[in-house]
Design goal:
DNA-binding; homodimer; Multidrug-efflux Transporter Regulator, Chain: A, Domain 2; mainly alpha; 61% helix
Amino acid sequence: MKSGLGIGALAKATGTKPETIRFYEQIGILPEPARTAGNYRTYGTEHLRRLSFVRRARDLGFPLDVVRAMLALADQPDRPCGEVDDLVLGQLREVERKITDLQRLRDELDRLAHQCRRGGRMADCRIIEALSPQNADMERRP
Amino acid sequence: MKSGLGIGALAKATGTKPETIRFYEQIGILPEPARTAGNYRTYGTEHLRRLSFVRRARDLGFPLDVVRAMLALADQPDRPCGEVDDLVLGQLREVERKITDLQRLRDELDRLAHQCRRGGRMADCRIIEALSPQNADMERRP
DNA sequence: ATGGACCCTCTAGCAACTGCAGGGTCAAGG
DNA sequence: CCTTGACCCTGCAGTTGCTAGAGGGTCCAT
């Protein structure tokens, strides 16, 4: 009668939804838990640990298959730790790439936002024009 | 025999794949084009303009429903231009929010990456520990 | 007339969930 | 004892923005 969380309790404890937990079970991220007589799932502390890990990693943007790989490594205590570090560094590079991409994007949107003299009509909207790039050049040049 | 691009030609001209063009047609982003006797789609310059616009907007990260809204506005030349500007500004704020989120993320991953003294074994991997937030504190303190 | 490149429709799949329908279970209150 | 309401179960459809495949038809050059 000590441990044994229901799916709702586990959900609350980890900030997940029950549906998501069932989903993780379905795709093999979480192992199948025991069931009560009434077919309810019951979870123990190991499930709590594992799900907390998964959620934290997902918050940090790791895709599920990378999370899966990390879990597999964590389950093999003799493997070198560097493999996990590689996954983290990969994710770090990924995030840095996204940041630079988005910064370029922001600059362009910023430029775009200045094209509009507010109060004009669509007919001479510079934004729409600016977003239709090459055809203005290509069509008038046969 | 003058204009009339096939779907492949339009695809090449806009850096899109034929499948994507058909998809855009299916969801109403592009209007249904005329067909040849053999049931091939034929596109004119208006399609080219429209698709170029869509692709450019997508490149800038606008989701398809926003693109749809911009197209609807562009089709009404007497509407005020400010509505499009609002969509652009909304997207700009969205991108800026993503940038700050990712920067926080990067800092955390950076911290995480320094936890690894390379050469260790999984059994005492600080990264895994750091990713299991509460239990590291709760269970490692008997 | 035959080969290959192109095109057609329809369907299923990706990530990572979310939400719903149509049931079953359980503990507490009347 | 029975009912109510909160929870749980399975299974499946939907989300976003495409992409890929099956299984066929068309077009054009040789």
